[in-house]
Amino acid sequence: MNKRQTRLFAIASTGLAALAFLGLTVDSHRQFPSLTNESQLTPQVIAGKNVWHKFNCVNCHTLFGEGAYYAPDLTKIAKLRGEQYLTAYLKNPAQFYDEKRHRRLMPKQNLSDEEIKNLISFLAWVSNVDNGGWPPRPILVTGAAIPGTDLAATQQVQPGAQAPPGARPVSGDENPMALGERLFRSVTPACNACHSVAPGVNMAGPSLAGVGERAAKTIASPDYKGKAKDANQYIHESILEPSAHLVAGAMYSANGVSFMPNTYSQSLTPEQVDQLAAYLLSLK
Is 11 a member of any domain? Predict the structure, then answer.
């Protein structure tokens, strides 16, 4: 290839690349309204975006992978957690984690009820944007404890019960879902040692994302062998009698016996099972 041919080839290649780039750009702009749910940009969503900026949420969290990386990406948080959970969490994050054990860094922002509602609307809009699966990392896979931390410092002690050394009492106004999330991390054996709460992230046990919806479908199936009548009862049954119903074809049981520990009926109080179920039902 001589110099003239080389020059023509370079010019033609550049032209074709430019045309392809322009075509893809035009096509992207054509799809933006549907991909971003432009029609759902209500005044409440916009007000929620203003709350996001007002409290500098981006200083710790990311949306679409953009922002700071001190805290989880919240792109799909509205689909992973229900409105009830998010409302309770935003009112008082301290209810959901123990700072000594789990390094809770989320401050209490003292948002008004209206600000919380608007912020959740904004996060719901964000969660419905077609982002092509980005960012790929799950919000939460496990919640491993900090080595050397005394479990007793985070155990939930019901009023009137004898507290182990170092345990802190549970106040009557704490949210059941918050207590349930703590239990998810601190019971023995810890639920998060085997289960993830991120969709599709199966560990020793299946992911618990959307467990309430799956429970309802399981109960409606003619193959269901348990006694539960609704999703809440099914979760109670799974905790207390894990072998009451085994999912066909699943690799989480053998010889008619679930691999799930059957000791929670002795180690958890009825109130704690209720709290754990409330948390699990909040997972989307």
Answer: no
* pTM of model > 0.70: no
Asked whether residue 7 is domain-assigned, the answer is no
Average pLDDT over residues 173-201: 85
Task: Specify whether the CB–CB gap between 253 and 246 falls below 8 A.
Answer: yes
Q: Can you read off the two tokens belonging to residue 115?
A: 């600000």
CATH code: domain of residue 191 = 1.10.760.10
How far is residue 278's CA from residue 271's CA, in Å, rounded to a whole number?
A: 11
Total residues belonging to the chain: 284
> What pLDDT sits at residue 168?
35
- Predicted pLDDT at 228: 95
Q: Give 257's strand partners.
A: 254
pLDDT surpasses 70 at 207: yes
How is residue 273 written in tokens?
Answer: 């099972």
Same-domain pairing of 197 and 226: yes
Give CA separation, 59 vs 18, 79, 165, in Å.
37, 22, 38
> Same domain for 102 and 220?
no
